[in-house]
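TASK: fixed-backbone design
INPUT:
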């Protein structure tokens, strides 16, 4: 939906763009299926899916679009119901709105500048969604530094765990340790799953690392350093670099097993 809003300045033809007006056509009131939150979807064969958009995730965009719809707006109570499912946690010295995969703390900010914008939930925490993503980014880096599962390659400049493809499913013994590797899974910090797969998403986190916060955590150089670290460590394993740098939900074929000595696709 949100991606369809981008072509307007490129299409030029208003009548053509009308077909892509993502804010007008979706009926999210219907998608509530008589509940407060929005369901994950509907199919002709089975009707509404049993899962709902609950808990902090990329649905931030969905609810913003729903609230602003000129034709089928979501009621304010729907957004309130969604935020009531949030988990505020403390990890690695930071209080923040928890979501495990790093991409969740990045995706919505591609389209909306949340700096200084607060809803009732964030006002109660004296924070905002941009500041929350900054804290989550630091937590991800510090998790990699601590490296609780002992994967080779994790560290200050090699971090970034998110929903992504992986080298599995498979089980291998590496450095005397039996490791279980997954395929596509919503990897996250600090509770996992974590099978040693790092994602280039760390290199997209520099927006949440302004220099003014340098003394409190990581600055913009850390994301660039993470990219360089991943490239350097995986330089001899080009097939894995190419795979990892494609869209994390892509359908590219991956090798049957991770490179020898590697924790997973991006843990060298």
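OUTPUT:
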């Amino acid at each position: 939906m949100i991606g369809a809003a981008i072509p307007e300045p490129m299409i030029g033809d208003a009548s053509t763009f009308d077909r892509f007006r993502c804010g007008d056509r979706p009926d999210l009131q219907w998608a509530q299926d008589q509940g407060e939150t929005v369901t994950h979807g509907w199919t002709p064969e089975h009707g509404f899916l049993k899962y709902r958009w609950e808990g902090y995730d990329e649905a931030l965009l969905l609810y913003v679009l729903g609230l602003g719809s000129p034709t089928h707006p979501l009621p304010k109570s729907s957004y309130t119901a969604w935020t009531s499912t949030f988990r505020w946690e403390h990890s690695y010295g930071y209080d923040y709105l928890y979501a495990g995969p790093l991409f969740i703390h990045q995706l919505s900010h591609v389209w909306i500048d949340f700096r200084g914008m607060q809803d009732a939930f964030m006002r109660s925490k004296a924070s905002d969604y941009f500041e929350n993503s900054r804290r989550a980014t630091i937590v991800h880096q510090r998790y990699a530094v601590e490296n609780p599962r002992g994967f080779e390659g994790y560290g200050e400049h090699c971090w970034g765990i998110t929903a992504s493809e992986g080298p599995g499913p498979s089980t291998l013994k590496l450095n005397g340790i039996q490791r279980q590797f997954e395929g596509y899974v919503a990897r996250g910090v600090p509770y996992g799953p974590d099978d040693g797969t790092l994602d280039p998403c760390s290199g997209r986190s520099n927006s949440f690392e302004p220099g003014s916060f340098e003394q409190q955590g990581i600055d913009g150089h850390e994301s660039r350093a993470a990219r360089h670290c991943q490239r350097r460590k995986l330089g001899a394993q080009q097939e894995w670099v190419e795979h990892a740098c494609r869209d994390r939900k892509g359908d590219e074929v991956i090798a049957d097993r991770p490179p020898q000595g590697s924790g997973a696709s991006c843990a060298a």
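COMMENT: The first strand starts at residue 42 and ends at 43.
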